[in-house]
Amino acid sequence: MAEDAQDVAEPAFPGAQAAYDLVSCLRFYSRLTVPRLPGEGDPHGVPDFRTVPRMLPLAGLLLGLPSGLMLLGAWALGLGPFLAATLAVATGALVTGALHEDGLADVADGFGGGTTRERCLEIMRDSRIGAYGGVALVLALALRIGALATLLDRTGAYAALALVLAAAISRTAALAPMVLLDPARPGGAGAAVGRPTRGTFLVAMGLSLGLAAMALGLGLPAGGIALMLGFTALAAGIVTALARRKIGGQTGDVVGACQQAAEVAGLIGLVAAIPV
Length: 276
Fold this sequence. Notes:
Elements: H1 16-29, H2 56-76, H3 81-96, H4 99-113, H5 117-125, H6 131-155, H7 158-173, H8 176-180, H9 189-192, H10 198-218, H11 222-247, H12 252-273
Helix pairs in contact: 1-2, 2-3, 2-7, 3-6, 4-5, 4-6, 4-12, 6-7, 6-12, 7-10, 7-11, 7-12, 11-12
């Protein structure tokens, strides 16, 4: 037996790998400064998306918390549903650096203006925002603000719980194109981070369902949560199918657009289930 065989490194602390995956998600999906954990590798390296996204629902929950707190604070100050919802959405954009909104705009421009796969990808690579992207951004922001304002009006503080839940499950739903489609650009960002395994996706979905169950226990209606989950999955499926038809695969922009569509759809599903 060889004497120079390398030993398998022991975890730095219990649950270390899950914690590493969580902070990797927080760094990748936001502008937050997350300190390096004991025993963690290069915190600035490209995360391995084959396994890291299993903790994405918890990362999404944490990323949604500042927006939820802003929503509650503005509501408590008597700023009204519309202004409170607008401030909450603005807070979310600051936390993430508008990462997903940028993807939505690029996909809308590419899919709307491109008639061939190559032309779609070329437009999506352009940093300028066109008419389709501008309209998509305005509509997505308006729908999120409108849904949150309506939830505040109908449920009060429970709207913040809905916002945080939507932030978590929409990011899980946005993994669908990564799992189901090959990268549209072999040398692009989508290919560089790797493809989540189906096991990783199942763990993420399980965590999302667990968070939904917790939200049910905290007071969100069962029918509303069911519609929220259903609308979120439907939106992810539509974006994935559209990406397959238009560009034959997925990119980072497609993933961002999928998250935005899933979050909007999920919030609308919850609103639809709560009577006036």
